[in-house]
Amino acid sequence: MKRHTNLKSFARTLAMAGTVALTSALMATSALAQVMGGDVVVVQGSNPPSLDAMSTSSQASRNVNMNMYETLYGFSDAIQPIPILAEGVEISDDGLTYVFTLRQGVKFHNGDEMKASDVKASLERYRKVGATGNLLEPVTNIEVTGDYEVTFTMAKATPTFLEAFSSPRAPAVIIPEEDAEAEAGKTSLIGTGPYKYVEYVPDSHVKLERFEDYSADERYEEEDGFGGRKTAYFDTVTFRIIPEPGAQVAALEAGEVDLVEQIPMPSAARLESNPDITLYENMPWAFTTFILNMNEPPTDNLKFREAVQVALNMEEVMGISSEGLFNLNHGWQYPGSTYDAGAIGEEFYNLHDADRAKALLAEAGYNGEKFTILTDTQIPQHGKAAVVIAEQLNAIGINAVINQVDWPTALKLRLEDTGWNGWTLQMGIEPYLGPVGVIATLTGNRPHFVENDEKLEALYQELISGETVEARKATFAKIQERLYEIFGIIKIGDAGLMQAARSNLKDFEPFRFTRMYDVWREG
What we know:
By secondary structure, this protein is an alpha+beta fold. It is about 30% helix and about 25% strand. The chain is globular.
C-alpha cells in the first residue's frame, strides 16, 4: 500500500491543518455548553433515491435515513455489534436460536410504542424489499414470543450473523406494523430515530424535525457508531441537494449552509486557512471499483475482462478521480485490518501493460465491439474515473464509450442484464463492514456483476459459517484469490472523503453518514 497525493506538500499541509483545526475545535467545545434550537443545513450532491431505508443502499439516502430510523443492533465506533432498539440477545449454545429482548417505552414518530409485532412485521417486509438480499438468509422463522421479545430460528449455526444483521448498508430498520405490506418506497416514513420526516422536494431538499418523544438510550453517555445515546439539538435538519461542487463550496463560504458532505481537494487547499471553516478528512472512505457485466458481450469473455484488468493504470485513475486523497491497494479489505489477505492478487494490480492487454484481447476474439461504461453525474469520483478508464481502454483498441446518467438512473440501469459493460462504483459502506459486507454484494440473487459465480457463492457460505476468526480469514484469502481469477470486479484503489463545515458547528465527527444528532451550533 502506498499513500498518494497530486501535490505532496499540499496534501501534507492540508491533512495537518485539518487535524489541528479539528483538535482545536474539540478542545474549545469541551468548555462550552451545548445550545438547543435552530436549523442546520447539510449539503449533498444527489437526491436520495428513496427514504424507505430498507430498500436502498445509497449513501445519499443513508445520510438522511439513519437520522430517522433505528435497528435492533448496529455497529459501534469500534465496528462491533451493539444493541440499539434491543436490550440484548441470547444465543443458544448450538447457534440455532436468537432471542432478542426489546427496549420498552420506545416510541415511533406516530406516537405508538414499538412492540415485538412491529419488529416481526418489519423484518418480514425486509425479506421482500431489503436491498441486502441475503441479510436474513440464515433465518428460517421469526416469532413473537412476548410483547417485547422476538425469537429467530436459524437454518444452521452462522457465527457471523449478528455482524451481518448489524449492517447499515440497507439497514433492517424497525417501522410500524401497519407499514409492513407497503411496496418498496411507499411507506409512511415513520421510524424511531431522533429526527422525523417533514418533507422531501426532489432536487431541492429533505427536511427533518426533532422528535420530541424520542427515547434516548440511557445505557450510553453519548453516541457510539450507529447507536449510543443520541441527542437532537437542532429544531430541524435540512439536507439540501446541490449537484455542482463549486456551488456547494460557495454556499458554505457565504454561511448559507453549515456542512458539505464532500468538497473538492483544490477547494480544501484554499479553505484550510479560513478561520470560519473546519476541514475533516474521512479516510479511508471507500473502495473505488470498476464492475464488469459478466452477462453482456464483450465482458462475458474471461480473457477480455483480464485484458481490462491488466490495461488499467490504477494510480492515474485514483489520482484524477480522488484529486489526490487515495491509497493504492489491490486488496479487498483495508491494509492492516483483520481480514487483510496480503499479497494475493497483487501480480494483476496497477500493471498498465498495453502489450499484454492487446494479446489478451486477441485471445478473446475481440473485434471492436462497443464497450459501454455506465456512470453518473452526481458522484464526482464516478464520472472522473469513467473518463480516465475510457481513455486508457481506447488506447489499447477497446471501443469504450461512456453513458453518464443521474444516480437513480444508474442504479436502475445496472440492474439490467444488458445495456452496459462496466460500471464505476465507490463501495463505501461494504468494506467498512468487513468481508461479509463486501462479498454479500457479489453473491446472492443479484450480484453486482450480474452473473453468479458458483465458486464464489460456495466460498461466501463457507465464510459466514466459519466458526473462528482464523477460519474466516483463511476463507477470505481464497475469496480474494477467486476475485483475481474471474475479473468480474476490478479494485482500483482506496479513496478518502474531504468534508467541511462552518467552524461554529460543534461536535461534528466524520462517520459513515452525516450524524446530525449530538451536533449543535455555537452562537
